[in-house]
Amino acid sequence: MELSTDLKSIQETRTLLAAAKAAQEKFKHFPQDKVDKIAKAMADAGYDARERLAKLASEETGFGKWQDKVTKNIVGTQMLWNYIKDMKTCDIIAKTHEGKVWEVATPMGVVAALIPSTNPTSTMMYKAIISLKSRNAVVASPHPRAIKCTLEAAKIMSDAAAKAGAPEGLIQCITTPTLEGTSELMRHESTGVILATGSGQMVKAAYSSGKPAYGVGSGNVPAFIERTANVPKAVADILFGKTFDNGTLCSSEQAIVCDLPVKTKVVEELKKRGAYFVSNDERQKLERTLFPKGLNPEIVGKSAVFIAEKAGIAVPPATKVLVAELGGVGKAYPLSAEKLSTVLAFYTEDGWEAGCKRCIELLEFGGIGHSLALHSQNETVITEFALRKPAHRILINTVAAIGAVGYTTALAPAMTLGPGTIGGSITTDNITPMHLLNIKRIGFEVNPVNDANGNPLQPAASENNASTTAGKRALSLKPHQERSFIEEIEERIRLKAGNSVSAIKGSAVKKESPVNPKGTAKTMAGKMSSDDIEKIVKTFSK
């Protein structure tokens, strides 16, 4: 009896996990130089295959432009390697505090890598390289719409790693991906950590799997053009980002928020560069086409001309982007959501404060924690956006789509971008090999309590406890073993009565202290005199 597809997928997943785990058990002991040799070989092989893999991905998925997928493959291989090549990821990676604290890197084990259909080959190679750079194995689950190109990218990575000396089986990819198989991959005992890049539903499933997971939130990225911006460059950058691979990156610009004083110039520049502003009737057609019941997958990664034709809108053949002016954000304004295509929302606000508010509304409607673009020359505005906006990649005067992944900025090249806790993730980082390591910390003694012979040491006293160094407790008493019986009694009486040590020993009382009728000094507590305490001490001394 032949197994059903879902059972086949589950069984295959278990088999691949077992092979990956066995290979990783060997690989986890490799030294840094061998690991780096393997990771570099993978990056080189992926870079060499960048164009062929880009064409495969474009043909299989029907998304985007193969020319731009080449750039994505470069980010996920060559640029990635140049960024991570000097990272220490094996054994002792740091010694701090004058050598008294060591940091020791250990791998997490088997990485479960969920691969999206929008960036399949670049994400597969990126996740394989960062996994092996940190001495992990990886098992990938491709999107059903991108199986062939993902499998080919995985094979290129695996062959390059093996040729460079890696154990066979470190890089695996499911050939029959199903929801059941992917669920098994995420929940299996052999899985150490999940790298989830894909739909919001899949990312949520990763977080609820019971395994540690790094996920990517949706990226409803606003781009604010402030009145001091270089408008021609700002518009050119936004259009580049929106049309890059036809808008399939989650970091691509989804809406322009325009400062009122520069609106005329911005609109002119947009039209000059191939943007088409839809009418009110055309906007409604566009809404129905893009969001019949949720985002229409048939328009994802498609050109503006294709989408316009699908919506019944006549546009010039050179149209690059469809722009819809909107009056609000939310369900009543479908085009204010993430669109993953060549469609832009457009808002006009007077002043950076109003623009800031609109950007926050857009982020809260499906992009919280992800990314935001700001085009401005005003340092105060830039600072305010940096400090106040709920986005963890704020891209200044650059293309958001590829700036967020590290192509036009100095951010870490990555295809997995953390949105932070406000976006449901444990990190705000662009994910690197360092996120796939467990770090042991080895602490050597710096503040001993006993000497070499096992005798207790006198802790250093300090008049100001707040200024004492860590580990040095300021105490007024000698250790218990060094106090005499009388000193012990004196201390107990002092604590009971609220007297100072000088009062206990009969020292002179300050002039401002109250005096009783017999001339006996009273303490500030007003309970016992120093004469009373002396009598008690003499009693215990007998």
- Give the strand content: 15-25%
Helix content: 40-55%
Query: Averaging pLDDT over every residue, what do you get?
Result: 89
Rg over alpha carbons: 33 Å
Distance between the termini: 97 Å
Q: Could you say which structural class the secondary elements and strand pairing correspond to?
A: alpha/beta
Biggest sheet, open or closed, and with what strands and sense?
Answer: 7 strands, parallel
The strand count comes to 15
Name its key features:
18 helices; 40% helix; alpha/beta; five-stranded parallel sheet; seven-stranded parallel sheet; 542 residues; globular
Task: Describe the protein's architecture and organization.
The chain has 542 residues and is α/β, with parallel strands linked by helices. The protein has helices at 5-27, 32-48, 50-61, 66-84, 120-133, 147-163, 179-187, 200-207, 231-243, 263-272, 280-290, 304-311, 352-364, 379-388, 400-403, 485-497, 501-504, 530-541; strands at 91-96, 101-107, 110-114, 137-141, 171-173, 191-196, 213-215, 221-225, 253-259, 275-277, 321-325, 343-349, 369-375, 391-396, 437-443. A seven-stranded parallel beta sheet has the order 10-11-12-9-8-13-14, with helices on both faces. Strands 5-4-3-6-7 form a five-stranded parallel beta sheet, sandwiched between helices. Residues 462-482 and 499-526 have low confidence and may be disordered.
